[in-house]
Amino acid sequence: MRRATMRRLSTQILVSQIVILVAVVLVGFVLFAYQQRGQLDEQYEQRAADIAATVAGIPEVGSCLETEGGACGDSIQQIATRVQKETGASYVVVIDMNRVRHSHPNPALIGQQVEEPIATMDGKIHVRMDPGSLGRSANGRAPLYGPDGVMVGEVSAGITENSITSELAQELPGEALWVAAALAAAAFASWLLAARLKRRTFGLELDEITTLLQEREATLHGIREGVIAFDPAGRVTMINDEARRLLGLGTAGIGGRLEDLVPEGRLRDVLSGEIAGQDQVVLTDDYCLTVNRMPVTLAGRSHGAVVTLRDRTELSGLLRELDSVRGLTDALRAQQHEFSNHMHTVAGLLELGESAEALHYLTDLGGAEAEFAESVRSRIASPLIVGLILGKAAVASERGVVLALSEDTLLTEAPEKAQALTTILGNLIDNAFEALGGTGAAGGGRAPGGSGRVEVTIVEDDSEITVRVADDGPGIPPGAADSIFVDGYTTKPEPGSRRRGLGLALVHRLVQRLGGQITVSEGPGAVFTVRLPKQARDVVPALAKAATG
Predict the structure, then answer these.
(1) 436-449 residue pLDDT tens
(2) Pairwise CA distance, residues 115 & 99, whole Å
(3) What is the 8-class DSSP label of residue 477?
């Protein structure tokens, strides 16, 4: 139980602080005592000097040494003894210019010569700590003058060290009481601080805090999901390796503000919470991300927010490929159904004996498809683009939509960035089909009486490639020409379908990466126009794959 108590965080903090306080107070008290002793030494030295000056100022002492040559009997000793008793001095010694003592607490030393020279020959009072024959003492020396002003000797007075120590011993207990009171107050404050820290750490002990930190670091840097934590002021307090990778932050991030780390745009707005909502889809130059921001509130106080980032670049590409496969499957199923209808028609004509009519019917079917294919090949030399157009034409036929190629279409056999061009063209044609079918980006379906027509124009010149896809659907609502390319923007209402609002955003980002431009007309009949420079930059493969439809 005792060991468990000592392991508590509050107990360790309290014991540590008390030990530190006691050590500091003891050191301080010793230094104070040392300083106080020095001050007492100075005070007693000055007191001894005053006593010596007082004795030197007695006329009888100076005149005795000057006129009688020191043959004053014991008068000087009597004067010195009286002053010594009245002032509490340990000794008062009078010497003449020959360094012969005329007074001393020890009568046996009177008449003896001192070994030290006269220190007051300069006419000034001197103080020091003197070892002396009576022990260490605070000593003061004053010059002694006769009636005619001639120096006739020196007066030395002293107070032994025992007297100084005794006074110091009387002062220190009172100071020690103040020190003990201050130590008790500091110990109480330490106890309050330890209790407060215990509450702030939610009652966790040091081992538990260490374990939690290790687990947090292992979890945050081991998961395949980006995590960023912000404090209430919007500064980044934590960011894991995956978040650094997805945002391209490198080693920067901790302590920085969001506006200094992420450029202005939709990503910053979602991370800062200006755009709220769950599973916000955001496109960067390299990735397609799903972003969630959750405010953190503890004890009714805001502690910032936590943002999670999921990389769905590959998933978006796979979902779009799956949709393409589903569309192709539906087209093949419909084509099989239509082929069966054609065969039934031919079989019926043959049963009726209308062989010529059956042959004419088959000729018309094959001729229309062959004519369109030949028209596409005559204007587009790239097999990749030809295959795309013919495939989309088959889908259009099954949906009851007319896919046409404009007369001014002209494309060489190996255009610049053919893969990116296929991606852009395929997405725009699919979007036009969905618009005519009532599920396009503009929504609303084909206008009443509309022909359901999509016209594609591809023109290549020396400087750029221009792609134009126009349909006669409801078009783009007024004021939506800019927001239609924003991540997640859609008016497609089908519940349970794949995540919408990415196709045009991906195309827009892809065009920007190629250094081109994309625009759309507002009002009925949407017209998307893409201009790509011939000398385009390379495209990030992951983003191009995600944009493939």
Answers:
(1) 874 444 444 444 44
(2) 8
(3) P
Strand 453-460 to 402-405 pairing: parallel
Mode of pairing for the β-strands spanning 517-520 and 527-533: antiparallel
Q: Which residues of 75-94 are buried (b: 16+ CB within 10 A; e: fewer)?
A: ebbebbeebbeebebbbbbb
CB 179 within 8 A of CB 25: yes
Question: CA–CA separation, 471 vs 450, rounded Å?
Answer: 10
- In this prediction, residue 501 carries a pLDDT of 56
Whether the CB-CB separation of 511 and 424 falls below 8 Å is answered with yes
- Model confidence, pTM: 0.48
Could you read off the pLDDT of 9-42 as tens digits, one per residue?
A: 667 777 777 788 788 878 877 877 777 777 777 8
d(CA 445, CA 434) in angstroms, rounded, equals 8
Separation between Cα atoms, residue 14 and residue 17, nearest integer Å: 5
Task: Give me the helices (H) in 441-527, please.
Answer: 503-513
User: What are the tens digits of pLDDT across the range 154-209?
Assistant: 999 988 877 667 766 676 677 778 777 877 887 777 777 777 777 776 666 666 77
User: Nearest-CA neighbor of 501 among 510, 492, 509?
Assistant: 492
| Mean pLDDT, rounded, of the chain | 77
d(CA 451, CA 525): 11
Q: Report how far residue 164's alpha carbon sits from residue 448's, in angstroms, rounded to the nearest whole number.
A: 117
Q: What residues contact residue 102 under an 8 Å CB cut-off, 6+ apart?
A: 65, 70, 72, 76, 77, 94, 95, 96, 110, 111, 153
Which of 137, 138, 139, 157 is closest to 56 using CA atoms? 157
Distance, in Å, from the CA atom of 142 to the CA atom of 132, rounded to the nearest integer, reads 17
Residue 509: which of 546, 474, 477 has the closest Cα? Answer: 546
